[in-house]
Amino acid sequence: VVLLPEQKGKRCDACLRLESETIRLRNCSRCHSYWYCGEKCQQAQWKAHHKKMCKAYNRYTASTAFQALPPNEKLDSLLLSHLVAELFSNSKEEPLALLIEDQPTPISTFSSLLSGPIVNQRIPPICPMGPNDILLEGVLDELYSRFGNNNFVIHSHLVSIAHGIFPLASRLFNHSCVPNAAAKYIFTESEPVRMDVVALRDIKEGEEICLPYIDPALYQTRQQIFNLTYGFVCTCISCAFAEKIGPIPQPPQEPAEREMFERSLRNFVFPSLDSQPFDLVLPKEPYETIPENMLPALHESFLGSLSEVFSTTSHDGPYRVALDVGVTILAVYALLYPPNYPQIGMHLLEMAKTAWNAVVTGDNDENAQAAEDRLKDELRVYLTRCQDILGIFGREGDSAGGPLEEIGILRRLLVGND
Ligand SMILES: C[S@@+](CC[C@H](N)C(=O)[O-])C[C@H]1O[C@@H](n2cnc3c(N)ncnc32)[C@H](O)[C@@H]1O
C-alpha cells in the first residue's frame, strides 16, 4: 500500500490507522519519512520492504525524475518500489524466483494477472536498491504493466486515502457496471489492510461476483476508459443497452423545459413521491431498459450540473432547492447504479443533513409548522433508506466517525427536536 500525499504523517504507513488520542505515530528514525503506530507495524514493514528503501528514499523522492511525475505516477512509483523491495526482501538468493513459484505467493499471483493494454508504457523511476537493480531489467516492465488494470484505491468511509495491490482480489473479480458486490477496507492494529468484498444483493450459486472498476456513472466515457486502461469491452446489461441506443440526447437547456424534464424524471423513478405522507421507494432491480424520453438523464453533463447546484445549495441554501435537486440526483443514481450501491446511501445521507439544516434554520417559504413537519418526514425517510443501504455495506476504515455514526447522530437530534 502507499498513502496519498495528504494522508502521509497522519496515518500509520503499514496498517493505515489514523493518528488519534490513543494512536500516536512515530517516524522512522533513519529516513524520518515513514510513520508507524507501533513497533509491530514498523518491524513488519522494515522486513517487508523498508530496509531496502530507507537509505535511498529521501534522495529518490527529491530527485528531478520523481518530482517531475504527475501525482498518480508518483504513487505508482512508490508502490512499484515497495513491490520490488518486497521481492528482494523475501528471498536473498533468487528474488525473481518468487514471480514464478509453484506455490502461489501474493507476488507470483500478481505477476500472473492479465496485463493492461500497453501503449507507450513509461515505467516510473523506482527507489534505488543497490546491486540488485541490475536484476530488474524486464521485470519492472512485467510488474508495471499490471498496475493500471489491477490496482485498487483504498478508502475509509468511502473517501480515498491510499493505493494498494491486492493480488487475490485482482485475480478473482472482473468488472461490471451493474456490480453485485463492492470492496471495502478494514484497518486492524499491526496487520496489513484487509479488503472485504460485500454482496450488494443475493447472489446465486455459480453467478459471477463482479466489482465496479470505475464509477458506473461515467455513462458516456466508461467504454473508452475500459479500452484504454483495462483493454476490454464491457458487455454488462447496462453497456449492452448503451450500445443499442447509441448517442445520448442532450438534456433540455431552456429553464421551463428543463424543469419539466426533471419533474417527469423524478416521477418516473419515484411514482409515490407526491403521496402523503412523504415516501421515497428506491427500485429493487437494476434498470435493463430506459424509456427514450428519460435518456437525457444519462448524459454526463446532466449529473454534473445537478451536483454543482446541490453542493452549493445544500450548504448555503435555499435548502428546498437543494432537496428537490437532491431527489433528481437520486433518480439519476437509480438509473445508473444497481440497488444498494454505497454511493446512493452516501447521497441520501447528504440529503438527510440538508433536511436537518432546513429544520433548524426554518429556511422555507411555506406555512412554518406544516413545512417543518414535512421536512421531518423527509428526513426520517432519507435516514431509513440510507441506513438500509449503508447497513449492507457496513463499517469500513477508521473506527471513529463515518456515515453509520452520522446516521445515529441525526436520528438522536431528530428525536431530541420532536
Ligand atoms: C483485475 S483483472 C481481473 C482478473 C483477470 N480476469 C485475471 O485473472 O487477471 C482485470 C482484467 O481482467 C479483464 N476483465 C475484467 N473485467 C472484465 C470484463 N467485464 N470483461 C472482459 N474482461 C474483463 C481485463 O483484461 C482487465 O484488464
UniProtKB/TrEMBL annotation:
Cellular component terms, GO, for this chain's entry? nucleus
- Looking at the record, the residues that make up the MYND-type domain are 12-54
- Per UniProt, which keywords does this protein have? Metal-binding, Signal, Zinc, Zinc-finger
Among Gene3D superfamilies, the record links this protein to: 1.10.220.160, 6.10.140.2220, SET domain
Residues forming coiled coils: none
Domain of life (superkingdom): Eukaryota
Classification via CDD domains: SET_SMYD
Has UniProt tagged this entry with the keyword Hydrolase? no
Name any one GO molecular function: zinc ion binding
Domain (SET) spans 1-214
UniProt name for this protein: MYND-type domain-containing protein
Q: Which organism is it from?
A: Piloderma croceum (strain F 1598)
What broad taxonomic lineage does this protein's source fall under? Eukaryota, Fungi, Dikarya, Basidiomycota, Agaricomycotina
